[in-house]
Amino acid sequence: MTPALHRELYSQSDWYKIPVRSQERKEPWIAFKILAVGVIPPAEAFTYAFNNGADFICVGMFEWQIVDNVNLARQAIKGAANRPRPWRAASAES
């Protein structure tokens, strides 16, 4: 994708359209920077990402946050079972 086309699709003024556009994608979608440098709590960010089409999340954390964040992610994934966009990645449990 050329830089000009990228700016056209996702400019700073229409960041809120990204979840809508993700619904159209056939490839697995990885959401990153979802915690907004710690502004958004993990439970809220994970739930939002998975409910709005993310198949994976890429989240930075300290070692003491791993267990809690994995548990929050698992809860968010289970809660997104009936989301509008079908999952585009194989389940580890299947």
Summarize the structure.
With 94 residues, this protein is mainly alpha-helical. The chain has one domain.
Describe this structure in words.
With 94 residues, the protein is mainly alpha-helical. It has one domain (3-79). The chain is built from four helices and two strands; from the N terminus they run ααβαβα. The chain has helices at 3-9, 18-22, 42-51, 66-79; strands at residues 30-32, 56-58. It has a two-stranded parallel ribbon. β1, α3 and β2 form a beta-alpha-beta unit. α3 packs parallel to α4 (66-79).
Structural descriptors:
two-stranded parallel ribbon, 94 residues, mainly alpha, disordered N terminus, single chain, 4 helices
The backbone outline, from C-alpha atoms, is globular
Oligomeric organization of the protein chains: single chain
Terminal CA distance reads: 34 Å
Supply the helix-strand structural class. mainly alpha
Helix content: 25-40%
Q: How many individual β-strands?
A: 2
**What's the overall average pLDDT, rounded?**
80
Question: What's the story with the biggest beta sheet?
Answer: 2 strands, parallel
Alpha plus pi helix count: 4
Number of domains: 1
**Proportion of residues in extended strands:** 5-15%
Order of helices and strands: HHEHEH
> Low-confidence parts, pLDDT < 50 over ≥5 residues?
1-7
Strand order, largest beta sheet: 1-2
Backbone CA Rg = 14 Å
Topology (elements, then pairings):
Layout: H1 3-9, H2 18-22, E1 30-32, H3 42-51, E2 56-58, H4 66-79
